[in-house]
Write a structure and sequence with these properties.
By secondary structure, the protein is of the alpha+beta class. It is 46% helix and 22% strand. Strand 5 and strand 6 form a beta hairpin.
C-alpha cells in the first residue's frame, strides 16, 4: 500500500473521529459511521446494525450493491449479532468456510469476506461491518481502523448515554 493511500485513510479516520465526538445521538453516531467507514476501510461495502432486544436491525449501508438495509434478523443468526453477543470483533476471510455465516443470506450478494465489530461498552448496542468482494486476506490496516471506528463510536455512545442519565437526574 502506498504512503499516499495510507495517509489518506488515516486523514479520513481523523475526520471521522472528530465528527463522532460531535454526534449528539446514537443515530448520529451510526450515520457518521455509514458515510465514513467505506472510504476509510477501502471496502466494497459497510453496514451499521442496531441491536433491538433479541433482534438486530440493519439501519444503514454504503455498498456497491444492496445488502440488508432496513431488514431485521434474530440476533443469534447473523454475524453482527454474534459480534454483539460475544462482545468481540469477528474477521471472516472467506464466508464459504465459516459455519457461523448464514450462506443463504450471503451467496446472492457480492460479499466474499467480512469483518464485524461491536459498538458499546458492556452490552453492545450496535455493530459496524465491512465487506469485500474478494477472499484475499483482509488488510491489517483495515482491521485496525475498523476497531478504532468501533471504539470511537462506543466512547461517544457512552458519553451520550451518560449525558442523558445526568439530565434525568437533574430534572
Amino acid at each position: 500500500m502506498s504512503k499516499t493511500v495510507r495517509f489518506t485513510r488515516w486523514r479520513l479516520m481523523s475526520a471521522a473521529t472528530r465528527r463522532l465526538g460531535e454526534a449528539g445521538t446514537l443515530e448520529g453516531v451510526l450515520e457518521i459511521l455509514r458515510i465514513s467507514a467505506r472510504a476509510i476501510l477501502r471496502s466494497d461495502g459497510v453496514t451499521v446494525v442496531r441491536r433491538e432486544g433479541n433482534m438486530v436491525h440493519y439501519v444503514g449501508e454504503d455498498a456497491i450493491a444492496p445488502l440488508w438495509a432496513g431488514q431485521r434478523f434474530p440476533i443469534a443468526t447473523c454475524i453482527s449479532g454474534v459480534a454483539m453477543m460475544e462482545r468481540q470483533s469477528i474477521v471472516i476471510p472467506d464466508i464459504r468456510l465459516d459455519p457461523r455465516v448464514p450462506l443463504n443470506a450471503y451467496l446472492s450478494t457480492f460479499v466474499a469476506s467480512m469483518a464485524m465489530a461491536p459498538i458499546g461498552h458492556g452490552e453492545p448496542v450496535a455493530a459496524i461491518g465491512a465487506y469485500w468482494r474478494s477472499t484475499a486476506p483482509i488488510e491489517e490496516d483495515a482491521l485496525t481502523l475498523l476497531d478504532m471506528l468501533a471504539k470511537s463510536a462506543s466512547a461517544q455512545a457512552e458519553r451520550i448515554h451518560d449525558s442523558r442519565q445526568i439530565r434525568k437526574l437533574a430534572s
